[in-house]
Design brief:
This protein is of the alpha/beta class. It is built from 16 helices and 20 strands. The radius of gyration is 23 Å and the shape is globular.
Length: about 475
């Protein structure tokens, strides 16, 4: 079947996973493809080799666009609207689309899309794992998982692409039309790229703009959609409020579908708490509309294994101190959620490369949950000035010193929580490296209870 971008002369910006997937799909559809990347070609040698093998021209360390005209430009998520290459395409009149948009044009299966500020990847994993566990073929895709263009090229037989969608991807997306779409939550994030919260919210809501009548849009209780949901789309609300279509309460999610009351138990699952219960309600609603029954969804929730660096208990000491890695918390809203989820008095390790200006919003919660804050990274002094009058704070500078200081202070029942509330790039290559370094240091210096590790290993073997 012919697609809208068959046999085009295409420019792809970026040779990361997204850009490579777009280039390979375009080449497979008979296109003449050129890839531009600002990075060092030596670091991308493997990618360059795969592109060349597919007949694709790649330029690394490129300064400007080639002079030749292009039918379309595919921009990787890292390229903001203000980038000089994007601006040059606008001047030339070259259409710019996202890799997500390209992949969706060639994906033959159904799409369950998830956007939001926090928790997207966990919900995508829950939905994909639960579908597969129920015998319905699915793959995580998009911002978490396999780029949709690669999925369209390599796994077109799958029934579902459970697709994480970021605000960056939506900057160049217009026709993406999921079967089921979830806006999980909306918190201040990425305001170093987007002009303000109004622009950020508009990008999130644009996920629904091209949905067709009869499809399902899930929004959190109380969030205005500002008229962005097309007529005929089935708009449902989720959350912890009694008036929601799908509500979390009393360790369960309840909703009504086609006149029948649905109830899915969460007791004992990772999602059975006040913070993640709303996400579970969204997931249950989406999976029910994807065709699964309550029992199969309950199985998926009960067997769910959280992603690394998301409220992950990495060690327990002989004295009963629990060490939790929440390095994925790169905003203060995520740190606030972690403080609410922590089961015990908190000794918080926070700091890094701050992405927002308002540090006051978490002060009251810190006073309620936190014994002491151990500050690291570039914004340590700034956080100290903002919080030290409300909660004891210590400027440690490095993660290693923070772990050691928290270990010395911690009492039985305390939770030493790495939930930085910031980006990691001042001291680490990624939030993953930050979390791994935390775990390594804890295991090197703390007097650990070996039973935790044997029980954790046993749990993994039975999953």
């Amino acid at each position: 079947m012919r697609g809208p971008y068959d046999q085009v002369n295409a420019l792809v910006l970026g040779a990361g996973a997204s850009g490579e997937a777009a280039a390979l799909l375009l080449a497979a559809r008979g296109g003449r493809v050129r890839v531009l990347d600002e990075g060092d070609g030596a670091a991308r040698a493997a990618v360059a080799g795969r592109l060349r093998q597919a007949g694709i021209t790649a330029h690394f360390g490129a300064g400007g666009l080639p002079e030749e005209p292009f039918d379309v430009c595919i921009a990787s998520p890292g390229f903001a609207l203000q980038h000089t290459w994007i601006a040059a395409c606008r001047v030339r009149g070259t259409p710019v689309i996202s890799e997500l948009e390209l992949g969706a044009c060639y994906w033959p299966g159904r799409v369950l899309a998830v956007t939001g500020s926090k928790g997207k990847s966990s919900l995508v994993k829950l939905c994909a794992d639960t579908l597969n566990g129920a015998g319905v073929s699915a793959s995580p895709a998009g911002n978490y998982g396999i780029p949709l263009s690669r999925l369209a090229l390599e796994r077109p037989e799958l029934a579902w692409a459970v697709t994480e969608v970021s605000s960056f991807q939506m900057e160049h997306t217009r026709t993406f039309s999921p079967d089921i779409a979830i806006l999980l939550n909306l918190q201040a994030d990425h305001l170093d790229r987007h002009a303000d919260m109004a622009e950020y919210k508009a990008l999130k809501l644009s996920l629904f703009a091209a949905m067709r009548p009869g499809r399902v849009a899930l929004l959190p209780s109380g969030l205005s959609h500002e008229g962005r949901i097309p007529e005929g789309v089935d708009l449902l609300r989720f959350g912890a409020d009694a008036g929601c279509d799908w509500a979390y309460a009393d360790h369960a999610v309840m909703g009504v579908m086609r006149g029948c009351v649905c109830k899915v138990e969460l007791r004992g699952s990772w999602f059975d708490n006040a913070v993640l219960g709303a996400a579970a309600a969204a997931g249950v609603a989406a999976l029910r509309h994807a065709g699964l029954d309550d029992a199969r969804i309950e199985n998926g929730l009960a067997s769910f294994v959280p992603l690394a660096h998301r409220m992950q208990t990495v060690a327990v000491s002989r004295q009963g101190v629990r060490y939790v890695d929440d390095s994925k918390a790169t905003s203060l809203a995520a740190t606030a959620a972690a403080l609410r989820m922590a089961q015990g008095p908190v000794r918080l390790i926070a700091g890094g490369l701050l992405k927002e200006k308002d540090l006051d919003g978490v002060k009251e919660l810190l006073t309620q949950t936190t014994k002491k804050v151990y500050l690291i990274g570039q914004c340590a002094e700034q956080m100290f000035q903002a919080w030290s009058a409300s909660v004891p704070c210590e400027v440690c500078g490095t993660l290693e010193r923070a772990v050691e200081s928290a270990r010395c202070d911690a009492l039985p029942g305390d939770v030493v929580l790495l939930s930085p509330g910031t980006a990691s790039f001042d001291q680490f290559s990624s939030y993953r490296e930050r979390g791994e370094r935390f775990t390594e240091r804890v295991r090197a210096v703390a007097d650990l209870d070996e039973r935790f590790f044997s029980e954790g290993k046993k749990d993994k073997e039975t999953q």
